Amino acid sequence: MEKSEKRSVLHMLDPMPHVSPFDINMAVDAGFDLIFPYDNVQPEQVNGLVQDAIFSRGPAGVKRTGIFIGGRDIGIALNMLETAKNAMVPPFVISVLADPSGAFTTAAALVACVEKQLKVRHGDELKGAQAVVFGGTGPVGIATGVIASLAGANVTIVDPFNIDVALDKAREYNSRCGSKLVGTYASSDADKARLVAQADIVFCTAKAGVQVLNASVLSDAVQLKVAGDVNAVPPLGIEGIKRMHNGEPMIHTVNSTSAVGIGALAVGDIKYKLQNALLASLLTTETPLYLDFRAAFDQARNLV
Predict the structure, then answer these.
(1) pLDDT tens digit string along 106-126?
(2) CATH topology match: 9-98 vs 103-267
(3) How many Cβ atoms sit within 10 Å of the Cβ of residue 151?
């Protein structure tokens, strides 16, 4: 091997006690030669870690070096991404991808899949659509809401128990990302029915193994066009949507002839391809990339 052909290295920074095995496997499949996970990384340590990575490899080496930021909190991940970007010292610059808990790639895949069915089945677009995100205060739910809002949808994020949590999350990410989220809660089927009755789009990003919308609630979905569920663990999040569904009719809605569903494995197929493509791009780009949910959604739109 010639000296200029440096082996590729990915440094994986995570504020949690361990780096996700899923993300490590994805990095291997994306083509990185060497992968180094760092757990319990504090935000104030990111600057030093990044500069250790960039100054040690020289101009040829930095082109073969990337950073992945994980964790479970998307706010912390966005802060770490910004710190990493600011730590670069040209010409010592490397690319960085943030995807905490897989939230950015999962959310991007979900919104892109729903957007496609909205266009194909109904000739509509996200702009102006009424969208509800159940499980909307978790990482995937917040990312889903922000992506859909920035694409022009009118988005309500739903917490299952506490309206203050929903309001706080909406306020925080509207300020941070420029979205226009509305927060609410739904602790009963009656609350859920009231929300779905006014929804063109439903995103279900709630905890795995919990049915959020049953047939009774869905019978009130009088204007629903597309629903997407990321839960792959029985019982699935939306009754009647199966894991492999990708535009099949929803049998429990009033609009059963026109409302369609998207299941977790259909979303997961795009999510896998998306994360692989984003990781691989860290190795092929000529200019440094700093990738978050925005870049993920742009690429997801191409993949669907």
Answers:
(1) 999 999 999 999 999 999 999
(2) yes
(3) 19
Q: In what order do the strands lie in the sheet with 95-98?
A: 34-38, 9-13, 65-69, 95-98, 290-291
207 and 213 Cβ atoms separated by less than 8 Å: no
Q: Which pTM does this prediction carry?
A: 0.96
- Please, what CATH class does the domain formed by 9-98 belong to? alpha beta
The count of C-alpha atoms lying within 13 angstroms of the C-alpha of 191, restricted to the half-sphere facing its C-beta, is 13
pLDDT digits (tens, 9 = 90+) for 37-55: 999 999 999 999 999 999 9
Buried residues in 70-99 as b, exposed as e (16+ CB within 10 A): bbbbbebbbbbbbbbeebbeeebbbbbbbb
Domain positions in the chain are: 9-98, 103-267
103-267 falls under which CATH superfamily?
NAD(P)-binding Rossmann-like Domain (3.40.50.720)
